[in-house]
Design brief:
The complex is a heterodimer of chains A (about 240) and B (about 450). By secondary structure, chain A is of the alpha/beta class. Helices cover about 45% and strands about 15% of the residues of chain A. Chain A has a seven-stranded parallel β-sheet with strand order 3-2-1-4-5-6-9, sandwiched between helices. In chain A, strand 5 (about 130), helix 6 (about 145-165) and strand 6 form a beta-alpha-beta unit. Chain A starts with 5 loop residues before the first strand and ends in a 5-residue tail after the last helix. Chain B has a domain at about 185-415: 2-Layer Sandwich (Alpha-Beta Plaits). Chain B has helices at about 25-35, 85-95, 110-115, 125, 155-160, 195-205, 245, 270-285, 295-300, 325-340, 380-395, 410-415, 420-430, 440-445, and strands spanning about 5-10, 15-20, 40-45, 60, 70, 75-80, 100, 135-140, 145-150, 170-175, 180, 185-195, 210-215, 230-235, 260, 290-295, 305, 315-325, 350-355, 370-375, 400. In chain B, the strands form five sheets. In chain B, strands 16-12-14-13-19-20-18-21 form an eight-stranded antiparallel β-sheet. A five-stranded antiparallel β-sheet of chain B has the order 5-6-10-8-9. In chain B, strand 8 (about 135-140) and strand 9 (about 145-150) form a beta hairpin. In chain B, helix 10 (about 325-340) packs antiparallel against helix 11. The model of chain B has no long low-confidence stretch (mean pLDDT about 90). Classes of the chains: A alpha/beta (about 240), B alpha+beta (about 450). The interface of A and B includes residues 12, 41, 47, 183 and 186 of A. Chain A: It comes from Sphingomonas ursincola. Chain A: This is SDR family oxidoreductase. Chain A: GO terms for molecular function: oxidoreductase activity.
């Protein structure tokens, strides 16, 4: 069972948009939260599927999660945190403000918003919180460790949140999509065999949500790949360029 | 907004070029992107076959402008952004009893692409091309102007944009009417024709059928020349269905798409294999009546994603021409003889009777017969196509730009009397300085 309404935090991203369409196609009421006004996207969903859909403004780094949820006018049955920022590792290494932006967008903001959600969702039948984390959080690599470490923190946060609320019936799911062809990765050379389309990621998430899975890789191939990457001894790993 | 560079091609995978690609998320973002660019071209879902959607300097990926804007349940009028996929419209509206008035042979096209190509379907003889059902479109001219274009407003730009290959500006949104259907099923009748004359006779007496198309064995020669299977169809009314289907007449059986996993090697398409395939296919088209689900009827190849890979890495070219009615039989005979002699058969050779021409200045259809084929992009085949061009020109026909990757500018001008006016309008509005594609550069559009 999927509890409505489904609140999508970061609904303008490609994965957020695909999720909104996926949940709406299942007949769920959807609330789209994004930094810009995306009322047109809500209208689109309603026309496509006949479900209720509305748009609200949301900035993951604004530090006002309680005010956001109070203004929502309803307690969501499902919350999906899609917001995040890949950033540029070289820029993060060189400029403090850039590093802070990546950390705030991938750990501080998402964690605080989901804490605020969890405070309100105790007792919601079938309630579920879903966090989109990343395979980049499984091991710090020179090429993206500011982003990766924030995602590592977010993964640990989701694990703890799940543990804290499991007995009360609020489910928490961690999603590690791997490469996805989105605006965030436009122009990057991605290996096709381990790269998913946003629609595939959304389908995998909704399937896993129904099955109340704890942690998923949206493409199963990532599981053995990450197992190997985690198993490389640090003394060797530090000399690799991955 | 920053572009990224990626190798792009049309559906035929010939030619392939590195293009700088912008991906605007809204019409407003697109509007802000255009003015500082030099010449650019819109690209939808990349289903035109050749180089129409390629511009190495600036290609605009329109697929994120994909919102439905309004729908009127009483009239069937739909307003949407240009990047909406036809497949999304079909998925959303067939269950509610609506279908598009005109559909091409794939549902994986954008509405903007359907307009820019003024696509036709198997119902062209009675219903005309897609743009005949268009109420209006909004055109971003790239110089700060966004114009509503219709038969009433900016009618000259409307006529140039319908079938205008994206060269009159960026189509950002459009309105058209959907058509009511009672069921998601088609009543199909298959008729065999032993030769070209018989096939044409079947078409000429079948105007009452909503849809008609013939698959033609283009390797058949001599007295078998033009041997074909003609598929005639109508939307099935609900009361023509059996009790089970009548309970849910608009339900569609699920289709699981399969993918072609790898590029097939070149020899897979040897003339022996193609000949065998064509004979087998002909034998499989059993004459008689059948009830067919809507999706496999209209979109048989969409069940096989990436079917273009059967032609291997070198890619393929589609060739589609139309000949005026009075010249059709003689011209088709010459075309089919030239193809059969070359022995370069095509898996998919399609023949169809077309109805009246559209108002679009560069629209493809004209009353007569259209023949569509595809060939691996080999030097021998490209030389054959030049010979086919000459035959088409001899008989006063024209070539479909949406499928083209290799026509020459002089050949184009012979077939399109609206071309001079099209060029004039492009110059008058400064569009020739803002929009171009590899196709427009090659054909001097």
């Amino acid at each position: 069972m999927i509890a409505s309404p489904v609140l999508i935090l970061g609904a303008r991203s490609d994965i957020g948009k695909a999720l909104a369409r996926g949940y709406a196609a299942q007949g769920c009421e959807v609330i789209l939260a994004a930094r810009n006004d995306i009322a047109a996207d809500a209208t689109d969903l309603a026309l496509r599927t006949g479900v209720q859909a509305r748009a609200v403004l949301f900035d993951v780094t604004d530090g006002e999660p309680d005010r956001f949820f109070e203004g929502l006018g309803a307690i969501p049955g499902t919350v999906v945190m899609v917001a995040g920022l890949l950033g540029d590792q070289a820029e993060s290494a060189a400029v403090d403000a850039a590093a802070q932006q990546v950390m705030d967008s991938n750990y501080n903001g998402p964690a605080r918003y989901l804490l605020a959600a969890a405070r309100r969702m105790a007792g919601v039948p079938g309630g579920c919180i879903i966090g989109i984390s990343s395979v980049a959080g499984e091991r710090g690599r020179a090429s993206n460790f500011v982003y990766g470490s924030a995602k590592a923190g977010f993964t640990a946060f989701l694990s703890g949140l799940r543990n804290a609320h499991a007995r009360a019936g609020l489910h928490v799911m961690t999603v590690k999509p791997g490469f996805v062809r989105t605006q965030m990765t436009a122009g990057l050379k991605l290996p096709p065999a381990v790269t998913a389309e946003p629609g595939q990621v959304a389908d995998a998430i909704i399937r896993a949500h129904r099955a109340r899975r704890d942690v998923i890789y949206t493409l199963g191939r990532w599981r053995p790949i990450m197992a190997i990457i985690r198993a490389i001894p640090e003394s060797v790993f530090k000399k690799l360029s991955l | 907004m920053m572009p990224h560079v990626e190798p792009l091609s049309g559906w035929g995978r010939y030619p392939v070029r590195d293009c700088a690609v912008w991906q605007p998320v809204t019409a407003e973002a697109l509007h802000a992107t255009l003015p500082p660019l030099g010449r650019s071209i819109a690209r939808g879902n990349g289903r035109s076959y050749g180089d129409a959607s390629l511009n190495p300097e600036a290609t605009i990926d329109m697929r994120r402008l994909d919102r439905l804007i309004a729908f009127d349940d009483a009239s069937g009028e739909l307003v949407c952004e240009a990047g909406v996929l036809l497949s999304d419209i079909i998925d959303a509206f067939v269950p509610r009893g609506w279908f598009v008035p005109v559909t091409p042979g794939t549902r994986m096209v954008t509405i903007g692409g359907m307009i820019a190509s003024d696509v036709h379907g198997k119902n062209h003889h009675g219903t005309g091309s897609f743009c005949e059902h268009l109420l209006w479109l909004d055109l971003d001219l790239g110089d700060g102007r966004v114009l509503r274009c219709s038969h009433q407003e900016n009618a000259d730009l409307f006529a140039a944009s319908c079938g205008g290959m994206g060269l009159t500006g960026m189509i950002v949104r459009a309105a058209f009417r959907l058509m009511p259907i009672e069921s998601a099923w088609m009543r199909q009748q298959t008729v065999r024709a032993r030769d070209l004359g018989e096939a044409m006779a079947v078409f000429e007496r079948s105007h009452a059928w909503t849809y008609s198309v013939a698959w033609i064995d283009c390797l058949a020669r001599g007295r078998d020349l033009g041997r074909s299977a003609i598929l005639l169809a109508d939307h099935a009314p609900a009361d023509a269905l059996d009790a089970t289907r009548r309970a849910e007449p608009l339900a569609r059986p699920p289709r699981q798409p399969r993918a072609v996993p790898v590029d097939l090697p070149g020899f897979a398409l040897s003339s022996f294999n193609v000949r065998a395939f064509n004979q087998l296919y002909y034998a499989m088209q059993r004459p008689g009546e059948a009830l067919v689900a809507l999706d496999p009827y209209f979109y048989p190849l969409d069940a096989l994603t990436d079917w273009n890979r059967i032609y291997g890495r070198r890619g393929f070219v589609q060739y589609q021409c139309v000949l005026p009615l009075a010249e059709s039989e003689r011209g088709l005979r010459r075309l089919l003889e030239a193809i059969a002699t070359a022995g370069s058969g095509s898996f998919l050779a399609v023949l169809k009777r077309m109805g009246p021409a559209s108002f679009g200045l560069l629209s493809f259809p004209m009353p007569g017969y259209t023949l569509a084929l595809d060939f691996p992009a080999t030097p021998a085949n490209l030389a054959l196509l030049d010979r086919l061009d000459a035959i088409v020109a001899d008989h006063g026909g024209r070539i479909y730009l949406t499928k083209d990757a290799r026509l020459s500018a002089p050949m184009l001008a012979l077939g399109y009397p609206g071309l001079a006016r099209f060029r004039e309008l492009r110059a008058q509005h400064g569009l020739d300085r803002r929009f171009s594609s590899l196709l427009s550069q090659r054909l001097e559009l």
